[in-house]
């Protein structure tokens, strides 16, 4: 039985579930991920912690097994920057190819208001999924790391 759970500023996960989400994302994002401390910051932001704009952390369970997770943050900048940024999306590495990414994207789109931005490396296989949902690449992103 497939079930989704949505956590946000009014429905926060327990400390145990939050730790599970961090570990899940850290493990399943593989080479496209970040350190656990960065993942935790993104989750906290999605939960409205520290006066953030909020967003959502969405989990996908199948027969009580965590098979997917998404963290999406509100930017508060609609009109010139998309209202939401999809920070992390991952499916369990043992269950890829089952359409879990598609189900997660459908849930994200239905749960958010406004446009959604995401960053994806050119060689990431998930890029094709995002394009199927209508995501385009109109810009070249450049970053200055200090």
List the main descriptive attributes of the protein structure presented here:
24% strand; 29% helix; alpha+beta; Aminopeptidase; 5 strands; single chain; 146 residues; five-stranded mixed sheet
Summarize the structure in words:
- This protein has a single domain (2-132), classed as Aminopeptidase.
- 29% of the residues lie in helices and 24% in strands.
- The protein contains four helices and five strands; from the N terminus they run βααβββαβα.
- A five-stranded mixed sheet has the order 1-2-3-4-5, sandwiched between helices.
- Helix 3 links the parallel strand 4 and strand 5.
- The chain is globular and about 40 Å long.
Brief overview, please?
29% of the residues lie in helices and 24% in strands. It has 146 residues and is α+β, with helices and mostly antiparallel strands. The model has no long low-confidence stretch (mean pLDDT 93).
- List the strand order in the largest sheet: 1-2-3-4-5
Low-confidence stretches: none
Order of helices and strands: EHHEEEHEH
Number of H- or I-type helical stretches: 4
Shape: globular
Category from helices, strands and their pairing: alpha+beta
Question: Please, what is the CATH homologous superfamily?
Answer: Gcn5-related N-acetyltransferase (GNAT)
How much helical structure, as a percent, in the residues? 25-40%
At the first level of CATH, the class is Alpha Beta
Topology:
Layout: E1 2-7, H1 15-28, H2 36-46, E2 55-62, E3 65-74, E4 84-91, H3 100-111, E5 116-118, H4 127-132
Parallel strand pairs: 4-5
Antiparallel strand pairs: 1-2, 2-3, 3-4
